[in-house]
Design goal:
Elements (H helix, E strand, L loop, with lengths): L11 E10 L2 E11 L5 E4 L6 H9 L6 E6 L11 E4 L10 H11 L4 H14 L15 H14 L4 E5 L7 H16 L3 E5 L3 H7 L2 E6 L2 E7 H6 L4 H7 L15
Parallel strand pairs: 3-7, 3-8, 5-6, 6-7
Antiparallel strand pairs: 1-2, 1-4, 8-9
Helix pairs in contact: 2-3, 2-4, 3-4, 4-5
């Protein structure tokens, strides 16, 4: 079982990371460091590579070039200290409670400790009344809350979120954002991609702007939304379509 007070595996450093599929480079020479402090929000147009970047960080994809290093791991397996919630999470064919229990069993959490962890996760995500409900009959917003509850129970040091509120109504989005920020308050580093600029403004401490597989800007949220330095980031904030920008820019 992972101890909540275990030394952090962060910061996470990506150095000249690229991802290639056939003849196409999808992620291009990305270098950045993610520390344990801020909520990092990744934004950019569709096809920018946001989801791919999250999967590289989480270890689901292996870079074609470059290196990804967890500076605080010190020989530990980083996968045991992180979690990821996908845009369309997979629900097991079992109850809400059993979905969380299964995630804990995979991390080898002793059975005697699981009950309290499950109860707390259900309470935090507002899912107590659905504990015995089959997970697959929940609404999409409720399934996302269950995915967050499964992650919460694991006490991850870092949580990757791939557009967790896409296609969800404002009320459900509000609840999910509250859960995310409660996890952050308890010490989980949040790295999240979103297409919703309003959400980015509400949640971000730090913004990464990604376009055509490259990081074109990384700065504090207040600084970024006051006026990005990169011209494509400026156009993106103005609501312009960037699909026609074919030139490949390097960060300023």
């Amino acid at each position: 079982m992972i101890q909540a007070d275990a030394p952090t595996i962060l910061p996470l450093e990506l150095k000249d990371v690229s991802l290639q599929a056939g003849q196409h480079r999808l992620i291009k020479d990305v270098s950045c460091t993610l520390d344990a402090k801020d909520v990092t929000i990744i934004i950019g147009p569709n096809g920018a590579g946001k989801s791919l970047l999250l999967r590289l960080c989480h270890g689901l994809l292996t870079p074609s070039a470059g290196a990804i290093h967890w500076h605080g791991a010190n020989g530990r397996d980083p996968s045991l200290y992180q979690a990821m919630v996908f845009q369309r999470p997979v629900m097991l064919r079992r109850s809400v409670r059993a979905n969380i229990d299964f995630a804990l069993s995979l991390r080898k959490v002793p059975r005697r400790l699981r009950h309290n962890l499950i109860e707390e996760a259900l309470h935090r995500a507002g899912l107590n009344r659905f504990a015995k409900t089959p997970a697959r009959v929940l609404s999409f917003g409720e399934q996302q809350r269950l995915a967050l509850a499964r992650s919460w129970a694991l006490r991850p040091q870092i949580l990757f979120l791939d557009e967790p509120t896409a296609s969800i109504d404002p009320a459900a989005t509000h609840v999910i954002e509250e859960v995310i920020m409660a996890m952050r308050k308890e010490g989980t580093k949040i790295v999240m991609c979103t297409h919703d600029l309003g959400q980015a403004r509400r949640l971000a401490d730090e913004v990464i702007f990604l376009h055509r597989g490259r990081i074109l800007e990384k700065s504090g949220a207040a600084e970024f939304f006051a006026g990005p330095k990169n011209d494509l980031a400026q156009a993106f904030l103005r609501g312009e379509l960037l699909w026609w920008h074919r030139r490949e820019l390097t960060p300023p």
